[in-house]
Amino acid sequence: MSYWKKRFEALEAASNKYGIETYRKIEPAFDSAFRQIESEITLWYERLAKNNGVTMQEARQWLNANELKEFQWDVQEYIKYGRENAINQQWIKELENASAKYHISRLEALKVRTQQAVEVAFGNELDEVDAMVKKIFTNDYYHSIYEMQKGFNIGWEIGQIDERKLEKIVSSPWATDGKHFSERIWNSRTQLVSELHNQLTRTCILGKPPDDAIKAISKKFNTSKNQAGRLVMTEQAYFHSVAQQEAFKELDVEEFEVVATLDNLTSEICQEMDGKHFPMKDYEPGVTAPPFHPWCRSVTVPYFDDEFSLGERAARDEDGETYYVPADMTYPEWKKAMVDGDAEGLIVVSSDDTINMGALSGALNPNSVEASKHAVRYYESVRKMSTDCEAISKKTGYERSFVQDVKNHLFMTKHDLGNNTLEYFFPDYEIAQSWQRLMDSKMKIQPHDLILLEHEHAEFLYMKQGMTQAQAHQKAEKKYNYAKALKERK
Fold first, then answer.
1. Which residues on adjacent β-strands are paired with residue 364?
2. Which of 192, 215, 278, 317 counts the highest number of beta carbons within 10 A?
3. What is the reported pLDDT for 367?
4. What is residue 207's predicted lDDT score, i.e. its pLDDT?
5. What's the whole-model pTM score?
6. DSSP assignment letter at 175
7. How far apart are the C-alpha atoms of 24 and 352, rounded to whole Å?
8. In sequence order, which ranges of 99-162 are alpha helices (DSSP H)?
9. 151 near 442, Cβ under 8 Å?
10. How far apart are CA 433 and CA 448, in angstroms?
């Protein structure tokens, strides 16, 4: 898998994880709403039992066996019985059981409290989803640009996302039915409220057992939770995709590629789209870009040949500086410089020093001051690295000990270079670039990079035999001439 696929799949995975976390914040509100409604129904039956001096179990049995005769009365029977028992205190209890007015008022009270619980749950969902899509778009937009600029070792200030643009993106419906996520949430709320009210009506008016009602309502809440999960994860995938689209536009990426997560859960459409690439003008979520379906896990990555150049894009940006972005620059460091505008300490790349940025994106004129500064910084960073030798060994096939000897000789050991003092080799920009290519999985090794390894190892062995550095260098150069290979490369 290419460097870009790895980086952007990792970015999508982080975005997906945040979507799951958002759903986990929403889920308890639905559970709480159900528990509240369950409690209201239980309290109603408890009052019925207490009113008639029976246990809850007996009250349930009444309803199950339809033995509470007052539920079967019609209006005329209410009137007749009321006249005959006007002074009987038992009437108060029986009338409360049988009165349509009482049952209707209790039903309406249950409905109001049910709707309130549902409103809270769905209101919470809307707030969480709204916050999620804004955060995902913002984070993924910046992270996508960060990965690109770090990968090409060159960048420029992006600045803060315009809030009006963000609101426009978030508020725009994108699915084929033209509905915004807020509309979907409120439609789900309306449907659930209607279904719950119907269930409560059947329970209260027809004397349905409370356990049946609670089970039915629980099932409806589980359905709503599943719908909420599907909405959250689909909106997460969409706004992640749109963030990448905007980032690719910012960097003048001309084509994008679809990358599917291939496993036993991958849909047919994602399997079919995997590996296809399209011009950026055809970027359309749901059609040529993810999400292709609910719970979609596919992602887009930049697609370009070796001639693609961020340097050309940077050269057209006449309003600000262009900087060298080190391969080890962290996201917080990048954001501080490129988004917040504090680029202190970064090397400025002039238009004259920005050269071919295909295989060596962000490369500098080797004779420039900026290239010398970069070499010094890079040599210092190599001395702190602990995984470079292993990476080079795996990438080139050389024994790790062979690579370690080269690193020790070239970067770690001080030598007598002819002036009777011990010192490090003077940092060389081309050697720094070779070492980076040798260890970086995303870069293609060039022939002179391997010659560098052979030359330095031979020089190391000759010096172990007692030769001076100058003698060892001359002898190693006869067989492994790095300078000549570098010149032929150019």
1. 354
2. 192
3. 58
4. 57
5. 0.57
6. S
7. 52
8. 100-152
9. yes
10. 11
Instruction: Report yes or no: 185 and 126 within 8 Å, Cβ to Cβ.
Output: yes
- Greatest Cα-to-Cα distance within the chain, rounded to the nearest angstrom: 127
Asked whether 18 and 136 are in contact (CB, 8 A), the reply is: yes
> What is the token pair recorded at 240?
């992640």
Quickly list DSSP for 375-429: HHHHHHHHHH-SSHHHHHHHHH---HHHHHHHHIIIII--EE-SSSSEEPPPP-H
pLDDT along the chain (490 residues), means of 10: 68 82 79 73 65 57 46 48 51 51 53 70 79 89 87 78 82 73 76 75 60 74 79 85 89 88 86 91 92 88 62 48 74 88 72 38 56 78 85 93 95 84 85 89 86 94 92 91 79
Please name every residue paired with 324 in a beta bridge, in sequence order, or none if there are none.
154
Beta strand pairing status for 154-156 and 322-324?
A: antiparallel
Q: Are 214 and 41 in contact (CB under 8 A)?
A: yes
Radius of gyration of the chain (CA): 36
- Say if CB 349 and CB 182 are below 8 A apart: no
CA dihedral 38, 43, 46, 47 (to 10 degrees): -150
Please state, in angstroms and as integers, the Cα–Cα distance from residue 190 to each residue in 184, 195, 252, following that order.
10, 9, 44
**Whole-angstrom distance, CA of residue 93 vs CA of residue 169:** 60
Strand order in the sheet with 255-259: 277-279, 255-259, 299-303
Contact of 354 with 315, CB cutoff 8 Å:
yes
- Residue 451 and residue 482 in contact, taking contact as beta carbons nearer than 8 Å: yes
- 154 is written with which tokens? 């060159």
Measured CA to CA, the distance from residue 55 to residue 431 in angstroms comes to 88
Structure confidence at residue 119 (pLDDT): 73
Task: Spell out the long-range contacts of 280-285 with Cβ–Cβ below 8 A and sequence spacing 24 or more.
Answer: 280/245, 280/248, 280/249, 280/253, 280/254, 280/255, 280/256, 283/245, 283/248, 283/256, 285/174, 285/238, 285/241, 285/242, 285/245
Contact yes or no for 209/63 (Cβ under 8 A): yes
| Residue 126: per-residue pLDDT | 78
pLDDT of residue 313: 45
Cα–Cα distance between 299 and 147 in angstroms, integer?
15
